[in-house]
Amino acid sequence: MNRLADATSPYLLQHADNPVDWWPWCDEAFAEAKRRDVPVLISVGYAACHWCHVMAHESFENEQVGKLMNDNFVSIKVDREERPDVDAVYMTATQAMTGQGGWPMTVFATPDGTPFFCGTYFPRANFTRLLQSVTTAWRDQRDEVLRQGAAVVEAIGGAQAVGGPTAPLDGPLLDAAAGNLAGEYDETNGGFGGAPKFPPHMNLLFLLRHHQRTGDPRSLEIVRHTAEAMARGGIYDQLAGGFARYSVDAHWTVPHFEKMLYDNALLLRVYTQLWRLTGDPLARRVARDTARFLADELHRPGEGFASALDADTEGVEGLTYAWTPAQLVEALGEDDGRFAADLFAVTEEGTFEHGMSVLKLARDVDDAAPEVRTRWQGVVGQLLAARDTRPQPARDDKVVAAWNGLAITAIVEFLQVAALALETRDAGANLLEGVTIVADGAMRDAAEHLASVHVVDGRLRRVSRDGKVGDPAGVLEDYGCVAEAFCALHQLTGEGRWLSLAGQLLDTALEHFAAPEGAYYDTADDAERLVARPADPTDNATPSGRSALVAGLVAYSALTGETRYREAAEAALATVAPIVGRHARFTGYAATVGEALLSGPYEIAVVTDDPAGDPLVAAAHRYAPPGAVVVAGLPDQPGVPLLADRPLVDGRSAAYVCRGFVCQRPVTSVDELVAELG
């Protein structure tokens, strides 16, 4: 009996018709394993995962394999995005046993959840032999199996332990982190490390803030080079916008085609801030089109943002996205087909498989002559129309709280910077304005959905789908990312309810996730007990729970003036600081927030009757130092602490600038405000 038909996870639903008697993660599954005296097989993956699909087709859809699993195990299917706590515990076990991790993750455990053998993808023949071997070992070598499990649990406990050295995250440590990143930088291709190469969005955010605070030109150059290399590569969708999860090579050419919400949200912030600081036209275009991708492709009307687009289309990677020269000619005609092949580096040999090429941008178009840009845009439109007739990748349409928080924050920043550009009404203003309208609507949908559906009895739930909230409790990253998003939305709208909601979430996190010496666990003190309580301080594909919480605490403290939230943020960052100095690539978000604290952060309140059009508001956003908060509106607006007791000056708009709770005199001119922010 397969029990996945009523799951909220699209990944679990993909397995609802398998000949495997799957259970969802639940106490009843472990009780059944204990009753039958058989091991538990825990299979962890996610809907957009290519090798998860491969293992499903090879093994989980096979009747003989299903019978082996059903006869000898209780099999549990877990969506890692829905249960990051379960994933974190067993991924630590997998890495401890094998030296590496990844998905699909395959774990054999005792009926109490203790893992004793772990791995990732297994071809069907290997998996069949493994099932038989584990069955024999459980029957004939039980004591050895239990000893192995005890050793693994001890290793997990050590890896997830809280405590250890602490240090203030100060300027010298952040300078060292920037220096370490510069030393690991790929001078040729941009980014860090070799293949596979992941977009280093959080490191780039840190380096942008580091450059802004220190003036370090090297940090800015690393960001500009990497941003351009990614945007010109196949990892970026040259037709519809949006980034794939990673490149299988070191030069960003061939992507692993899945597109994740969290990557695109964080990269939207990178390109938006690069655009704000430099005016770079490529950064502007990529920010605009990434925002449009989020609104058009991932937004679910009346809800939030979906999690991902699949890596495969009808079981084939790249089916939707790759081209041959002949296909370009068929779609565009002879002349434009040759133009597109040259522009997008599509060759007879191909850059992908079977003579196909992934489109990358081989020519400079952002600074090209107007007639070249017009031709390029026409070609893009025609190719996109042709591509839309192909089979399309599936969408994992569950709404994840943390990732929606990241998207809300990113779109708020994009809207603020776009508003500055729209003042000029240049040639691209109409398209940019259209994107801001749809992105703003999608972002507000997501925020309302989180507030009304994901907040249940004052606590966050991790996921929802089709308007129905799931059972998994929110983890620390959910609380941090959503609180930061609500702080951003408060700044954009001037509505006090978003700040109030952020405070409620942060108070809950401080109460239920705290660990000794300023650290935090990733699960609440009243959450389901696993074989270990995860507490990972490092930033990986997304900000760690600890870094996300600190970002929310810093923003909330600056917006309210309540120092205890800043003190909690500083204590939490002190637990990560020793890692920042040594392993900067894995602490990018912590370092990003550290830059905000070191900068102040600045608190900028503009009292005005025209928040949308006042030049002081525009200047505040244009010249805001790292991590600054900006609020604009009438004096003493309810629910907006930064506007309390701050009157107009001689009937004129005025900007009040504070830094670290120390305030300057109000100013009424743009020049004066820029001087105070410099």
Set down the secondary structure blueprint:
Layout: H1 10-14, E1 22-24, H2 27-36, E2 40-45, H3 50-60, H4 63-72, E3 74-79, H5 84-98, E4 105-109, E5 115-119, H6 124-140, H7 142-159, H8 171-184, H9 201-214, H10 217-232, E6 246-247, E7 255-256, E8 259-260, H11 261-278, H12 281-298, E9 306-309, E10 312-313, E11 316-317, H13 325-332, H14 334-343, H15 370-388, E12 395-400, H16 401-422, H17 429-454, E13 455-456, E14 459-460, E15 463-465, E16 468-469, H18 476-493, H19 496-512, H20 545-560, H21 563-582, H22 588-599, E17 602-607, H23 615-622, E18 629-633, E19 654-659, E20 662-663, H24 670-677
Parallel strand pairs: 1-3, 2-3, 17-18
Antiparallel strand pairs: 2-4, 4-5, 6-7, 8-9, 9-12, 10-11, 12-15, 13-14, 15-16, 17-19, 19-20
Helix pairs in contact: 4-6, 5-7, 8-9, 8-21, 9-10, 9-11, 9-22, 11-12, 11-16, 12-16, 12-17, 13-14, 16-17, 16-18, 18-19, 18-20, 19-20, 20-21, 20-22, 21-22, 23-24
